[in-house]
Amino acid sequence: MKRILTLSLVSILSTACFAQQHPGAAEFAAKAAAEYDLDQEEVRILLENARFKQSIVDAMTRPAEAKPWYKYRPIFITEKRIEGGVEFWRENEPLIRQASEKYGVDPQVIVAIIGVETFYGGNTGSYRVLDALTTLSFYYPTSIRDRSEFFSKELMNFFMLGDEEGLPLEDVTGSYAGAMGLGQFMPSSYREYAVDMDGDGRRDLWSSMPDIIGSVANYLHRHGWEPGQPVTYPAILSPDADKSLVTKRDFKVKTPVSVLEEAGIESSQPVPTETLAAVGALEEEDGDRYFVTFKNFYVITRYNRSPLYAMAVYELSEAIRGGYGQ
Ligand SMILES: [Ca+2]
Predict the structure, then answer these.
(1) pTM of the prediction?
(2) Which of 67, 100, 201, 220 gets the highest tally of CB atoms within 10 A of its CB?
(3) From ligand 1's centre to the CA of 193, what distance in Å?
(4) Which residues touch 224 (CB under 8 Å, ≥6 apart)?
(5) How would you write 155-179 as a 3-class SS string?
(6) Which structural domains are found in the chain, ordered by start?
(7) Is 266 a catalytic residue?
(8) What is the pLDDT of residues 7-49, one digit of tens each?
(9) How many Å lie between the centroid of ligand 1 and the Cα of residue 210?
């Protein structure tokens, strides 16, 4: 009897110690119930058990994308990551072929995305997603552009995902931004684009290789991937080229290649003149390198907005394809 009493006291005390009242959490729980039909009490308890993490705030304020290309590239384009990709492809060949055919996405790009995101599953993130999304919803760093609303929506999606997929929300781990599984899907993307390719009734992006590979392929397909079409080619600029056509962030393809040519910007590889394209620049040690981008490059930026990211995925995919012998 005494022992049970002691135990329950300890559990009450520890609950009290860990329970955190986050600013805005009560309103969030009320909104979850009113607008998304979630259980208000369940949401409230989950939020109380979510911990603020200073390390997440710190990580958010120094993203790798702030680096110039010549410093960013060596992080992702390594012998180890290329060989890992070839090996991953060989190990999962039937699944990758199946997903590639079903969704119309080039196989090497599926492999490269998983390679850049998590080193083929070697690093899927060790933060509790509940802590990450709570921290970024309620304590977003004030030193950078405020994205707390985005993370608040992701937190809501996380709770809905928990309901739909039966996920143990307090145990789910991911990146410091709350991205999950081998393809690092944010909760809204998980809900929208993940597929149950092994047909067991659940979408498992951590341990079902068919679901993981199928989901990455479906994500690219749903954003408009064009199989077998180019991603990007180096650009050749004439001395009087119109550099106002060079974009930094928006890689939506709007300009026909023929118009780029008139402006002194030429693709190093031949493409039909009516092809829509954009032009980007990457910072090398000895100055900017220009490149013409196509629809597929834009699709990769739907996975991550940074052109550095898209170029890393592309270069890795080509190196893996070479190593695989395709
Ligand atoms: Ca499944």
Answers:
(1) 0.92
(2) 220
(3) 13
(4) 295, 298, 299
(5) HHHHHHHHHHHCCCCCCCEECCCCC
(6) 54-60+124-222 (1.10.8.350)
(7) no
(8) 444 444 444 455 778 999 999 999 999 999 999 999 999 999 9
(9) 7
